[in-house]
Design goal:
alpha/beta, Peroxisomal Thiolase, Chain A, domain 1, 11-stranded mixed beta sheet, two-stranded antiparallel sheet, 33% helix, globular
Length: 412
Amino acid sequence: MKRRVVITGIGVVSPIGIGMEEFWNAIKEGKNGVDYITRFDTEGYSTKIAAEVKGFKPEDYMDKKEAKRMDRFTQFAVAASRLAVEDSQLNLDLINKNRFGVVIGSGVGGLSTLEEQHEKLLKKGPKRISPFFIPMMISNMAAGQIAILLGAKGPNETVVSACASSTNAIGDSFKIIQRGDADIIVTGGAEAAITPLALAGFSSMKALSTNNDNPKIASRPFDKNRDGFVMGEGSAILILEELNHALNRGAKIYGEIVGYGMTCDAYHITAPAENGEGAARAMKSALDDAGIEPNMIDYINAHGTSTPYNDKFETAAIKEVFKDYAYKLKVSSTKSMTGHLLGAAGGLEGAVCALTVYHDFIPPTINYNTKDEECDLDYVPNKGIEQKVIYAMSNSLGFGGHNASIIIKKYV
């Protein structure tokens, strides 16, 4: 028999709140985390807005000296992991550390460190490069640092699949526990890519919103006037645990992961496949893995980036999978509030789905004002709703054609 896997802890560092409770209250209120970029001068950039994490102090979660040896994305991951472990009430002294793992997703890793050290190389020469440059930059270091902090000696890996990274990380963790290779895994994602180079790169691709005059309405998934995504940053970490392990210690259970699907478009480096064909297969795969019918899903947290193609084709994919029932589904994009956390997006949205099934509250898509004829589902416009949710699905779709879907079920 396959072992059952539940979520017993949630830790969040996000543009709309630090800590799970502050984050969830912000989601319920429809709080907007998008504003003008403050971390560097955006003179000359076509986009000047993003969803930055405000008020984050690394020393609140880790040794100050150690924090200086971590890139911002790793600091976020370590902080969110500490918050998740606290929320789970895990006693780290009583668990088998050899069956305690870490799987983290990140799309770009330590980009700010790379930029800073490259500038130092050009200005001051190779001998001035920090000896911590490489271990600060490489994407796997968030998982490594979390393991060091917690003493997790079990499976440890980093998933890099663009914007699907942390949904893949959660799904992979689910499978690792399900097949018996670990009892507890710290999983999710971290990203800190609001940097000069990343902003310039995404701007050059014409992928970002240029609604600089109205940052609060710039991220507007599924709205007819959407003009690109808004970059976000942060980390969201889930504690996944084998069910009996959780029950034996009296853990609080937010929900149970029951399905995981992943596919590739094999189509284009940035554009989604026509009509969301790859995304549809990922959703079908997750449903098959869960052993449930499409009409049992109550809510979908869509990838919903606020780009013209993603929203159109993800809508088409949902309609392909769910047929007429698609119009009865509640579908929303919380990127309207948090911006797009790239490789960490799926971690944050997995946390949203867990909290949705736990609290029976469906979050809104804010900034939804003008209907698009090609995006004609119920996107829970502007105001969340209280509704019983048994099954929630989270979708993540990334550059390179990576697609991932997970399904979280209410634990009863």
